[in-house]
Amino acid sequence: MLDARHRSSEEVDLVRQVCANNPEAISNLYCNFLLPIAKTVIRALRAQSVDPEELANTLFIRLSEKDWHSLRTWEGTNLPGWLWRVGYRSLLGILKESGRCDPLTDWHEASLAQDDTVLHQLLRDETGFLLLEAIDNLDSPRDRRVLRLHYLQSKELAEVADEVGVLVATAYVIKSRALARLRTILEGRATNAGASRA
Questions:
Q1: What is the pTM for the complete model shown?
Q2: What is the block-wise mean pLDDT of the chain (198 residues), using blocks of 10 residues?
Q3: Are residues 23 and 100 in the same domain?
Q4: Alpha carbon of 54 to those of 47, 60, 158: distances in Å?
Q5: DSSP secondary structure letter of residue 32
Q6: Residue 80 lies in a domain
Q7: DSSP code of 150?
Q8: What does the pLDDT read at residue 28?
Q9: How do the residues of the chain divide into helix, strand and coil, expressed in percent and rounded to 5?
Q10: 109: burial class by Cβ within 10 Å (0-12, 13-18, 19+)?
C-alpha cells in the first residue's frame, strides 16, 4: 500500500504543477498519461477509426479549458483511472459528433459481444476505470506490472515475461494468480455497491 500512496502523491504533485502551467509537467501529463490512455481506450472500445493523438488532444483540451477546471475536479486518487473515464466519455463524443457511429446504437453492444472476458467488458464499460484502480490495489508490484503490460498495453505474454525478467510459464502463473485476486477485489466492490443501493 505504501507504493500506491507514493504513486498517488506523485500524481497529486504532477496535477498541481500542471494547474500552475508548468510546461514540463504539462508535457509529462500528455506523453505519460493522456496518449497511453487514449490508445488504451481506443483499443478497448474497438474504435480504430479514431487516431490516438486526436483523442489525446481532445482530452488535453477538455482538461485545460478554463485554467484546468476539469483537472482541478480530480479528487487525488488513481489519476490514470480518472483520466480513463474522462477519455471514455470524450471518445464517445468524438464518435457521435463525427458521425462515425452512434454510441447509443448497436455499436456498443456489438463490441461487447465480440469478447466477453470480464476484463475486456470492464474496459469497455464506463466504469472501466475501476479496473485500473483495482490493479493499483494489488499488493505485488510484479502482479500490477504483468496485468498492466498484458491487458492495458496489449503485450503478448512472452513480451511481458521478457520485460519483467521471468520465464513465460512464470508470467502465466503470475497472471493467473493476479487475475484471481483482481476478481475478488472487483466482486467485493460490486457486492458492496449493491448493498449500499439496497
A1: 0.52
A2: 59 93 93 87 74 89 89 83 80 70 40 42 50 77 86 82 92 88 74 57
A3: yes
A4: 12, 10, 31
A5: I
A6: yes
A7: I
A8: 92
A9: 80, 0, 20
A10: exposed
Residue 133 lies in a domain: no
Give the structural domain span for 90.
1-114
- CA 60 to chain CA centroid, nearest Å: 16
**Is residue 25 a contact partner of residue 36, using CB atoms and an 8 Å limit?**
no
DSSP conformational letter for 139: S
Q: Is residue 108 part of a domain?
A: yes
**At 47, which helix (H) or strand (E)?**
none
> Cα separation of 18 and 191, whole Å?
37
Q: Which helix (H) or strand (E) holds 137?
A: none
pLDDT at 162: 93
How far is the C-alpha of 89 from the C-alpha of 93, rounded, in Å? 6
CATH number at residue 197: 1.10.10.10
